[in-house]
């Protein structure tokens, strides 16, 4: 193959790759505000924050009763925004999105000393999710090892992963957060 043909083939392959794109998993950095800085190749289909139920300090993922704030595209998934470079401020509603929780009014203030859970559902790439602790100085991304939801919809209970036993929250949440910090 001549140099010109080789260059033409490589150029065509690069164009094809650029057109088809590569799927890049959605990632989220939690920052002051809180705000959520995104990267990845997907489009934001929904974003939801869950808070702890009364008497608890750690949110249970997917518990409908625990939803604190949620948004989704106003006209459905085809109109969702690319997540690459997106910065979403808690309580702020991006153009083209609708707040679904709370149904009326502004997003409630997040309380310090509690652990919240977020999930960024995306189309075209794997989702992002995680926990963050609301410290006096701002949100801190943490892991919550051993906590699994009993289901993914409806009445969801916090369980110890792999069992039907209830998840027991740590007695010293500050120490737990220091030991399980991600950021």
Count of alpha and pi helical runs: 2
Radius of gyration: 20 Å
Biggest sheet descriptor: 6 strands, antiparallel
Name the shape in a single word.
Answer: globular
Query: What is the domain tally?
Result: 1
How are the strands ordered across the major sheet? 6-4-3-7-8-9
**Structural class given helices, strands, pairing?**
alpha+beta
Mean pLDDT: 88
Gap between N and C termini: 51 Å
Along the chain, the helix and strand elements come as: HEEEEEEEEEEEH
Comma- or semicolon-separated keywords:
183 residues, alpha+beta, six-stranded antiparallel sheet, 2 helices, 11 strands, 14% helix, globular
Quick structural summary:
Helices cover 14% and strands 33% of the residues. It is an alpha+beta fold and 183 residues long.
Model description:
The chain is built from 2 helices and 11 strands. It has helices at residues 3-20, 173-179; strands at residues 27-31, 35-39, 43-50, 67-73, 87-89, 97-101, 115-123, 128-135, 138-142, 147-149, 158-160. The strands form 3 sheets. A 6-stranded antiparallel sheet has the order 6-4-3-7-8-9, with no helix packed on it. Strand 8 (128-135) and strand 9 form a beta hairpin. The longest helix has 18 residues, at 3-20. The termini are far apart.
């Amino acid at each position: 193959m001549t140099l010109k043909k080789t260059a033409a083939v490589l150029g065509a392959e690069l164009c094809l790759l650029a057109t088809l794109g590569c799927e890049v998993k959605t990632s989220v950095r939690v920052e002051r505000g809180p705000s959520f800085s995104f990267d990845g190749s997907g489009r934001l289909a929904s974003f939801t924050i869950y808070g702890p139920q009364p008497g608890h300090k750690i949110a249970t993922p997917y518990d409908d009763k625990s939803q604190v704030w949620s948004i989704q595209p106003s006209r459905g998934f085809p109109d969702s925004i690319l997540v690459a470079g997106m910065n979403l401020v808690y309580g702020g509603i991006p153009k083209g999105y609708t707040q679904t929780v709370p149904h009326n009014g502004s997003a409630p203030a997040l309380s310090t000393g509690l652990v919240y859970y977020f999930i960024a559902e995306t189309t075209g790439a794997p989702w992002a999710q995680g926990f963050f602790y609301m410290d006096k100085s701002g949100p801190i991304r943490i892991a919550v090892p051993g906590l699994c939801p009993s289901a993914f919809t409806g009445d969801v209970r916090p369980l110890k992963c792999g069992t039907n036993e209830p998840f027991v929250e740590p007695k010293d949440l500050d120490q737990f957060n220091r030991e399980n910090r991600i950021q």
